[in-house]
Sequence to fold (35 residues):
Amino acid sequence: MIDDTNTIILSINIFLFKTYLFEPVSNLPYANTEP
Fold:
């Protein structure tokens, strides 16, 4: 049960990390407006 919980938490952390990592890519036009 503990292993399953750790796996779920790890998957969520990876998902959030990827979302944060690729967020600037989806907001690239907005980022280009920055000096």
Summary: The chain has a mean pLDDT of 72. Residues 2-26 form the longest helix (25 residues). The chain is about 85% helix and 0% strand. Residues 5 and 11 are 10 Å apart (CA to CA).
